[in-house]
Amino acid sequence: MTLEKIVNSVLDADLDGVEGLVKEGLEAGTDPSVLLKEGLIKGMDVVGDKFEAGDLFLPEMLAAAMTMKAGVEVLKPHLAGEDSKAAGTAIIGTVQGDIHDIGKNLVAMMLEGAGFEVADVGIDVLPEDFVKAVQEKKPQVVGLSALLTNTMPAVKTTIDALKEAGLRDQVKIMVGGAPVTQEFADEVGADGYATDAAGAVNIARGFVQA
Amino acid sequence: MAKSTLKILSDQEIRQLNEASFKILWEFGVQIDDESFRKQLADLGCEVDGKRVKIQPDILEKVIANTKAHNHVTLTSRDGIKVEINPDSIVSHTTGGIPDILDLETGQKRRPVVDDVIATMRLMNHLEHLDTPCSLLYPSDVPAPITQVKQTELMFRYSRKPIYGPGISSPGEAKYVAKLFEAFAGGSEELAKNPIGVVGVSPESPLKIPQVICDTMRIIISAGIPTSILSAPVGGMSGPLTLAGGLAQVNAEMLAFATVAYIINPETTMFYGSRLFYANMKTGCTIMGLPETGMVSAAAAQLAASNGFLSDLYGLCCTSCTFDSQSGYEKAANCLVPAMAGANWLSGFGAMASLMVASYEQLVIDNETFGLVKKVAKGITVNDDTIGLDVLSSAIKGSMILAHPHTIKHLRGGELFIPDLGFDSVWNDWDKKGQKDLRSVARERVYELLKKDEVVPLPDDLDQEVNGILDAAAAELVK
Amino acid sequence: MTEARTNPVLKFLDDQKIEQIHEASLRILQELGIKVEDADLRQELCNLGCDVDGDRVKINPDLVDKVIANAKKHNRFTLTSRTGKKVEMNPETVVSHSSNAIPDIIDFETGKCRRTTEDDLIGTTRLMNQLDEMDMPCALVYPNDLPAQTNQLKQAELLIRYSSKPIYATASEPNTARYLVELFNLFAGTNDKDMIGLVGISPESPLKFPKKITDALKIIVSAGIPVAMLAAPLGGLSGPLSIAGGLSQVNAELLAVAVVSYLFNPETPLLYGPRLFYANMRTGCSILGLPETGIASAVGAQMAAHYGFISDLYGMSCTSCTYDTQSGYEKAINCLLPFLSGANYVSGFGALASLMVASYEQLVIDNEIYANVKKAAKGFAVDEDAFGFDVLASAIKGGMVLAHPHTIKYLKKGEVFIPDLGFDAMWSDWVKKGKKDIQAVARERVVELLKKDEQELEPLAADMDNEITKIMEKATAELVK
Lengths: 210, 479, 481
Prior knowledge:
Distance between the termini of chain C: 42 Å
Strand content of chain C: 5-15%
Strand order of the largest sheet of chain B: 7-18-17-14-13-11-10
Oligomer: heterotrimer
Shape of chain B: globular
Largest sheet of chain C: 8 strands, mixed
Shape of chain C: globular
Number of helices of chain C: 17
CATH class of the domain at 66-378 in chain B: Alpha Beta
Radius of gyration of chain B: 23 Å
Distance between the termini of chain B: 57 Å
Radius of gyration of chain C: 23 Å
Number of strands of chain B: 20
Largest sheet of chain B: 7 strands, parallel
Number of strands of chain C: 21
Strand order of the largest sheet of chain C: 1-8-19-18-15-14-12-11
CATH architecture of the domain at 3-11 and 70-378 in chain C: Alpha-Beta Barrel
Strand content of chain B: 5-15%
Helix content of chain B: 40-55%
Structural class of chain B: alpha/beta
CATH superfamily of the domain at 66-378 in chain B: Trimethylamine methyltransferase-like
Number of helices of chain B: 18
Structural class of chain C: alpha/beta
Largest interface: B-C, 112 and 114 residues
CATH class of the domain at 3-11 and 70-378 in chain C: Alpha Beta
């Protein structure tokens, strides 16, 4: 019963209810890994399918992801080994000179929803700060965002800085933002480009599975 | 929801126009070829001068009051689909009787046949924003004297929606069209109570109701079939070039027609079907895509409302002969402007090239455009909830607006238009999907929708009755 | 062509709803306030009577009223191009400008989409010289081959060199602003003190003023250069999804920019540029062709009129990536709505694909769409002469309307629109002329017009050329590393 309720809480994006339900499940002695897989993840899978089919809008998908994340937070201390492992790690930020954060936040949130551990390094991020973050967090994926035409050159500068620091081959880089195109991504030597947040998640998944 | 209002003319200007039309009807009068109508109008108090009937303002006021008392109608199709038309409605119909079509397979222009009439009718069954189909096409394989009867039959057989019947111009056909309306309504009393569709009847410009039209009116209006008065002066040719002059004239023609309808059957709903339009003044060819088509339609919507009529106007019309930006901007402008001015019924679905060429793809494209226009005309809601201060307040504290319940609620509530056919992503996606223009997408949609349509055959007895009416019409009218 | 508006007729919202949005904006300013990064600026606003709460500045309604009253006194000005072309701007006129800094263009030769360069900026600017309905060019495309640090400045320089019309520049940081003022000052004072153009400046949404932006604003406003305040919340992402919510927010943001500008220089004319827009809510990608763009702009025009500001709005925007029916209807609807609502300054010339792809042909097509919309929004005369009773009287007697003096008189006066680019004949003519769609016709027109501009554009005077070159060299030396 609780499992079904947990699935539904994710489907309904019941952010207020999910924590109580997960706790209820734990108190009832349900295996945390079952609560995760048969409850939260199952709910998110249904949401994912509906989203793919075009039946859900992005805000609904996102609200469900936030609900799942809240549930996972409750479960985390009880999960062992494989189950507690993130799908991958990513750092993400908006490049130097650009102070727009919506797209970047959206991708960060969607990556978290997909089980990634995400370090958001913010907006107007200097190339050297990206380098520092990669050294510290050792991510598999780096996401660079640029909204303005005149800040796009900073994408290349950042990638060049990672090269210079000898870190380029340790990470996969994906780029995005309204004026960014596949051609631009190829030109600056990025590994991936997507037009939207859901696409970015697919690319990141591909990176960590490869 | 606050309906937005476009006043292309001020209330004062509308009053001036009405006064001008009153003056036209009183000073110039209208030529009515039917002697008995003239007599009845004289009995009503009009002044008859040869074939011209001059109508006093007080009679017009009486006609207007009666029109207003009948300016709401619900059309119900054979399948039970209802289309309600009242002064707050905005519904659509197609163009009617187009002489050519772009072949769906070859893209070449050719004369349409009965099969095209059927196929377009079936396609229209699946267009969400198309409320009432006309017979979009003029079938070239039907004997001319019974074309209007045949079109009516095909509409009733294949449309799941209420219909906008053909423009009728001969009493011979009017008789059989009325019989078809009766047959499908289930008798003459039912027809008057619960009409399945409307027909159009056109007086002549300037200010003339010829004998055949008088006879047609007598049949249709006494049967209680809601009638759209389709008066179509060409500015600068059969009416003044000035927009105001054309409007004063068309308004006078509407009122004159309604006065005659009043003496035939005051219970029948009349639509203000202004079809004032313009020509390329270098060649004299009439073209429908000029912005003036939309401007005078908007003014006509205001005039119709001021005189208690429901309006039935041009809408999605264009001069363009192909699926280019021009057909897009012409159709959008000419539909949006009257829609914002409160038009009740708009035409134009399926037509290109100044209503001379029809197209399957265009029907599907027009469905999208009309959906857009309707969304805009609906207006927006302003209240504490929609202003949403709490959303902003949580956003500045760093929470995500995108996942806020307010966002989801209003998205599901239809705050934003969601394109159904139109492209709604970014260049890269467009490129990835094969750089399709709207016509290609529409083409695929046409095949999909036609495959989806299922024809429900008529019950045997109705089928026989309809065949009998058609046979009788052919026997009487085709020599 | 600057033209006096005769008939602003669409009230998308009634006056009471407009007032309601105004009240909501005042509450936003007073209760939520604006995040102002610059501590000094916060202090100055505090001195002006605002409440400072951490990095947020809360603005009281009295100050807003004062700023609005002041803005109303400075809402009429004239811009004069280097060749002497004037554009008058005030709440009664309607003029056009192009989209700005588009990163890609459909190559005129190959038809393929590619990155834009300096040459494209020059080419499109010259084409705009020849478009009757285009009043003021922006740098339509972003010259990707020029250094980022001086790019906006370079855009302005190229506009000055190649445009025969007044220009619309942009500044998103103080260095650009500083040199822009130097460039503008070369021309100010030579033509009755008219400025050669204006500058667009954008805060961030929701309710955020980064220091870079306020620094740039300070420089431009202090120099007295008219500023287009451009606030662009994305409904459902950086503002409420509900249209009324987005409008209240964008209005609050613009009023706040006006307050800050007032502090710097109360004499500088301000333009009200609500650029509220929306996204495809399945993907989150912002798309400009939704009808809500036009709806928000229509109400934006009403809000501006309510305050006495000159409005500067999206106009011919579209999501469509090609010259199809969709780009036609999207642009027409989104331009008509603000136009009918009394917009003063309308954008969108030359853009496709949600402002991400530019096109030469589209510039020419937009010129035609704009002309159509302008005609529809102009209204028409309703008076005794226009009624043409004598025309009817003679027609009833069998006279020919077509040759009547009344017909000829009004035809000459422009009663009926005469398409300049659009097809205006019958199917058989269309076939005879080779079945061209409007893009094909526009293509031929582009070639024609560019050739014409080669002959017509006055070169820059040598001394002016030198001055400009000097400023640009100085800027490059300072800013480009």
